[in-house]
Design goal:
Elements (H helix, E strand, L loop, with lengths): L6 E11 L2 H7 L7 E8 L10 E5 L3 E6 L4 E5 L1 H8 L12 E6 H4 L3 E3 L8 E6 L10 E4 L5 H12 L19 E2 L7 H8 L8 H18 L1 E2 L9 H14 L3 E5 L1
Parallel strand pairs: 2-5, 3-8
Antiparallel strand pairs: 1-2, 1-7, 1-12, 3-9, 4-5, 4-6, 7-8, 10-11
The structure holds ligand A2H.
Ligand A2H binds next to strand 2, strand 9 and helix 6.
C-alpha cells in the first residue's frame, strides 16, 4: 500500500434472501428498498470467480439509504466516505436505516454480479478489518490466498463455524494463468508456503503479496470477455463494464 488513495471497486451484491436473524432485524426497516451488500475489491477482473462473500463476526454493519430504491449494507465508516464521493443522493448526508451484526448475516443468499454461480452465500472470516474498505469482502478463492484459506477452514470445520456446509460448496474457478503458478495461484501459494489456517497471518500476508504482483504483472485472463488479454489491461476493462452496467462503482479511500 503506497502513497495516495486506493482505488477500490464497490461491487453490489444483491440480497436475495436474508438469514433468519438478519431478516428479523432488517425487515420493515428499509422502506421497501432493495438491499445490496457492498464489497470493496482491488481485483475487479476476478469477479467471475466469486464463490461466497465474507463478513467479520465482530463487526457491526449498517444499512443506509442511497436513494428511494436502493440501500447499501456496509460499515458506517465506509458509508461516510461514499457520501463524499457522489455515490449517494445527498452529499455528505448519511441516511441510516438500521444496524445489523455480522453474525446475523451468515447464511444470507446473494447474487454476485459476473459470478459463474447465480447465487452464493455470506460466510464468516476471522481477518476482516473494520478499518478497510466496506467490511464486506467478496471471495475469490482461485486468486486470493486469504479467501482460499478461509473457505478451506470453513469446509473442514463447518460445525465449529456454525455454518451449513452447503453454503461453502462452490468451488474456485480458474480465471487467470501465470507462468509460475499455473491457473489457480491462491491454492498453489497456500500449498507452497505451507499455510494451514487463516490464523497463519504472516504467511498469508506473504502469499497475498506474491499473488497480487504475479497476477498483475504476469497474469493472463483464461476466462470471460477478455480471455487471452493481460490482467493489466483486462482489469480496467472489466471494471468499466461493471460500472457501465450499474453493478459496481468507483470507491476510493
Ligand atoms: B480483494 P489491501 Cl482475487 N478486511 O478482492 C480484509 N480484507 C479486505 C477488506 C477488509 N475490510 N476489504 C477488502 N479486503 C480484501 C479480491 C481479491 C483481493 C483477490 C486477490 C487479492 C485481493 C477478492 N477478495 O486483495 O490490503 C479485498 O480482497 C489483495 C490485495 O487494501 C481487497 O481486494 O491491499 C483487498 O483485501 C484490499 O486489500
Amino acid at each position: 500500500e503506497g502513497l495516495g488513495p486506493q482505488e477500490f471497486t464497490g461491487i453490489k451484491l444483491e440480497v436475495v434472501d436474508l438469514a433468519p436473524e438478519a431478516k428479523k432485524i432488517i425487515e420493515g426497516n428499509v422502506g421497501g428498498r432493495k438491499v445490496y451488500m457492498v464489497a470493496a475489491t482491488l481485483r475487479p477482473e476476478t469477479m467471475y470467480g466469486q464463490t461466497n462473500c465474507f463478513v467479520g463476526t465482530s463487526l457491526k454493519y449498517g444499512i443506509f439509504a442511497v436513494n428511494d430504491q436502493e440501500a447499501y449494507l456496509c460499515t458506517q465508516r465506509s458509508m461516510r466516505n461514499m457520501t463524499f464521493q457522489g455515490i449517494t443522493a445527498d452529499r455528505g448526508e448519511i441516511h441510516h436505516l438500521v444496524d445489523v451484526p455480522g453474525t446475523a448475516l451468515i447464511g444470507t443468499k446473494i447474487k454476485a454480479p459476473y459470478s459463474v454461480y447465480p447465487e452464493i452465500y455470506v460466510l464468516p472470516m476471522d481477518n476482516v478489518l473494520a478499518t478497510k474498505g466496506t467490511g464486506v469482502v467478496t471471495s475469490v478463492p482461485s486468486d486470493s490466498p486469504d479467501d482460499y484459506q478461509a473457505l478451506t477452514d470453513l469446509r473442514k470445520k463447518a460445525e465449529y463455524y456454525k455454518i451449513d456446509a452447503a453454503w461453502a460448496k462452490f468451488d474456485p474457478i480458474p480465471l487467470i494463468t501465470t507462468p509460475t503458478y499455473g491457473d489457480m495461484i491462491a491454492p498453489a501459494l497456500v500449498k507452497q508456503l505451507k499455510i494451514n489456517s487463516q490464523k497463519d497471518i504472516k504467511q498469508l500476508a506473504e502469499a497475498k503479496e506474491i499473488a497480487y504482483k504475479e497476477g498483475f504483472y504476469n497474469g493472463v485472463m483464461s476466462y470471460g470477455k477478455y480471455k487471452g488479454e493481460s490482467v493489466q489491461v483486462a482489469k480496467a476493462k472489466v471494471r468499466a463494464d461493471m460500472i457501465a452496467e450499474g453493478v459496481a462503482f468507483a470507491y476510493a479511500e
